[in-house]
Design a protein that fits this description.
This protein has about 220 residues and is mainly beta. The chain has two domains: about 70 residues, no CATH class; about 120 residues, Immunoglobulin-like (Sandwich). It is about 10% helix and about 25% strand. It is built from four helices and twelve strands. A hairpin with a 5-residue loop joins β11 and β12.
Length: about 220
C-alpha cells in the first residue's frame, strides 16, 4: 500500500485474492492482524547537514520526495523494511550466505542456509524468502520451515518473463537441485530476502550440462 500524495492521508491498498474474498463475505472476516513498513522510496543521500538555512532544513529534500503508489510487486515495494532495533544499535541487520556463486553439475544438489548478522535471532521466526529466477535451471524446496512461515509475507516477481519462470518459497533452510538432461549450460539468480528485517542477498547459480563419455564408432542407441 502507499499514500496517494503528500497532501492527504488517503491510503491506497491492493488486496490479494484471498483478501478480496474475505472482504466480500463481510461478517468482519477481513481483519488486518500484521503489517510491515518500508522506506524503499527514500534517498537518504539527500540529507544535507550543510544546508544554508540551518538544521530545520537538513532533511527538506527527503521530506519533499514524492511518495509512490501501491505496487503488487513486493520485491520492489518492500526492499528495505523498517525494524525496531535495541537502543544503541550501531549496525543494521545483514543477510549473508556462505557463497555468492554456486556451480552445479546437471542433477547435483546443494543447500542454502542464510544467516542474519548484527541482529540477534534475526529472521528466525518468519524465515527467509528465496526466489529462483528460472525454473528451467533448477528446483528449489524448503529443507527446514520457519516457525511462523504461514504468516510470513512472500513477495513475488510480477514481470512478464519473471512471473512465468520464477519460483518462490519461504523457510529457514533450502535445497537447490540442478535440472537434469540440460542441452547447454544455464544460469539463474537466487534472491534471498529476510522476511523480518528486509535484508537481502543474491547468489549466482550456474548449472553445467552433464558430459557423457562415448566410445568412437559405438552406436548411441539400440533398436
Amino acid at each position: 500500500m502507499g499514500y496517494l500524495n503528500n497532501s492527504s492521508i488517503t491510503v491506497d491498498a491492493i488486496l490479494t485474492k484471498k483478501g478480496r474474498e474475505l472482504l466480500a463475505r463481510g461478517r468482519d472476516e477481513f481483519q488486518i492482524t500484521q503489517f510491515a513498513l518500508a522506506d524503499s522510496e527514500i534517498d537518504y543521500d539527500l540529507y544535507n547537514p550543510a544546508h544554508p538555512l540551518g538544521t530545520a532544513y537538513y532533511g527538506a529534500a527527503i521530506e519533499n520526495l514524492p511518495i509512490v503508489e501501491a505496487l503488487t510487486d513486493e520485491t520492489q515495494m518492500m526492499k528495505y523494511k523498517l525494524v525496531t532495533l535495541p537502543k544503541g544499535t550501531a549496525r543494521i541487520p545483514v543477510v549473508r550466505v556462505a557463497q555468492n556463486t554456486i556451480n552445479l553439475e546437471s542433477g547435483e544438489q546443494t543447500r542454502i542456509n542464510p544467516q542474519t548478522v548484527n541482529f540477534q535471532n534475526g529472521n528466525q521466526q518468519f524465515g527467509y524468502t528465496v526466489i529462483l529466477s528460472d525454473s528451467d535451471v533448477a528446483e528449489v524446496r524448503v529443507a527446514r520451515s520457519a516457525p511462523n512461515s504461514s504468516a510470513a509475507s512472500v513477495p513475488q516477481f510480477v514481470g512478464d518473463n519473471e512471473a512465468a519462470q520464477s519460483v518462490t518459497v519461504s523457510g529457514i533452510e533450502f535445497e537447490i537441485t540442478a535440472k537434469e538432461q540440460l542441452l547447454s549450460d544455464k544460469s539463474a539468480t537466487i534472491l534471498i530476502i529476510g522476511n523480518e528485517t528486509g535484508g537481502r542477498a543474491t547468489i549466482n547459480l550456474t548449472v553445467r550440462r552433464l558430459e557423457v563419455a562415448t566410445t568412437a564408432g559405438a552406436p548411441t542407441s539400440q533398436s
